[in-house]
Amino acid sequence: MVWFVLLEIIFHFIFHKTQAYKFDGVVLEVWSQLGGQARKALQMLIKLLGEALTKADLKLILVIPPPITNEGKPGMFDNDDMKQLYAYVDYFSIMTYDYSSPERPGIFKCKQSNILLK
Q1: In what order do the strands lie in the sheet with 91-94?
Q2: In degrees, to the nearest 5, what angle opens at C-alpha 77 toward C-alphas 118 and 3?
Q3: In this model, does residue 112 exceed pLDDT 80?
């Protein structure tokens, strides 16, 4: 019950600020901040926000940690999360930049495996 009240407060704040400032939409980066915890609550928030933004002709971009780590292990965001959310999100931004450094400016296979997630 507490989660639902918090989700409603967060949803209304984001949605109304988006309209008040005449933004084109929202780039929401929250998944990795919670370390993969509270999945169902996050999914509910993203669904509420996605539906409302779509009705208002606004966009939702969800920033997600890589579903597959640079070591090939499952990440914090998985196939079930994608299946639950893809209909509510306009674009996903995968944080593969975490795998880059001056010595290796990008790991193509890792990035490719995250984009081709089945």
Answers
A1: 25-29, 59-64, 91-94
A2: 135
A3: no
What's the burial of 54, exposed, middle or buried (CB within 10 Å: 0-12/13-18/19+)? middle
Write out the two tokens for 5: 């009240």
Helix (H) or strand (E) holding 29: strand 25-29
For the chain, the domain total comes to 1
Q: How far apart are CA 110 and CA 96, in angstroms?
A: 8
Q: Measured in Å, how far apart are the chain's first and last C-alpha atoms?
A: 34
Q: What is the pLDDT of residues 45-90, one digit of tens each?
A: 999 999 999 999 999 999 998 887 767 788 888 889 999 999 999 9
Enclosing domain of residue 99: 2-115
CATH code for the domain in which residue 54 is found: 3.20.20.80
Contact between residue 60 and residue 49 where contact means Cβ atoms under 8 Å apart: yes
User: Residue 5 contacts by C-beta under 8 Å, 6 or more apart in sequence?
Assistant: none
